[in-house]
Amino acid sequence: MTLTSAAPSSAPRILVVRNDKLGDFMLAWPALACLKAARPAPHVSVLVPAYTAPMARLCPWIDEVVLDPGDGAGRDAQRDLLARLKVGRFDALLTLFSTPRIGWLCWRAGIPLRLAPATKWAQVFYNRRVTQRRSRSEKPEYRYNLELAEALLNALDITLPPRPVPPYWPLPAVTRERERQRLGEALALEGACPWVFLHAGSGGSAVNLSTDQYATLARRIDARLGGAGKARPAWLLTAGPGEESAADALHARLVEAGLEAHRPPPSPGLDAFAMSLSAADLFIAGSTGPLHIAGCLNVVTAGFYPARRSATPLRWQTCNAEERRLAFCPPAGAGERDMTSIDLEAAAGQIAARLTPLTTRETTP
Known about the structure:
alpha/beta, Rossmann fold, 12 strands, about 35% helix, about 15% strand, elongated, disordered N terminus, disordered C terminus, ADP-heptose-lipopolysaccharide heptosyltransferase activity
């Protein structure tokens, strides 16, 4: 839930900007947790688009959500945003994704300390800059964000707190139990078998496996568990807006192959969909927003990534615990978009091994 308690008068007011895609925003949660762990705890506001605002309102490290109308909004909307930023009386700005419009508005708003990565010409609007070279993909995105948060605390002369650890979206156990009960009743699911959520959509932002590949992967995982006398998993096939037909097609393929596959009921919003992922025993997807929601929940994840340097498994690593994530990508020498070269048999073996301890119901010979 969103924190609502007022910050003490000595605590700084910080505005954090991450106003692009869902996955990028979820990878900002470790940085937000770092800021909120400082003492005195700052008042943390975020500037986000309407699309990710429901997730921002669920984030326990955020006190206030400010909506960004976007680059395409008219002059009046930009003027209203500027007025809102001035009213916020922010002591510091942390821009995790810098654009000229945001830099200019925050400079105009008179925010005295403005920190951002030293990239693009928009950096001229910032008086503190950190060189990171993110395009080299030398570390995970969420760690780049953490380093920026720590740089801001240093600039504010605040002692750095210990780095936060997963889960970055901590939910009470009763929430997971409630979601499992809700889905179990809606889909007549067996609670003793592993629940594997598979999100085949890409949101248009990431190269992903094809429907055929996901069907093959699911069949091989299912066969490995069934062949070992373990409980075969229940497959829950999720989809975002505009991805329903692909999920329906995959569902038909899996049912035809004899797998226990289900399409969860539509969620009333992104926040409800995100909460439902807490019911998963394992989440499979490409490098998309839902994968990173699952990572923040510390759900076991299996992500499929392209070979492109700027989109490597290291750069876009989920932020769950190391032992709770798997990542797969094309081998060295493959084309950066050649997802067909991923060894699905090896991937199925690793995923099945993660599921084996969860197969509490054994089949009888």
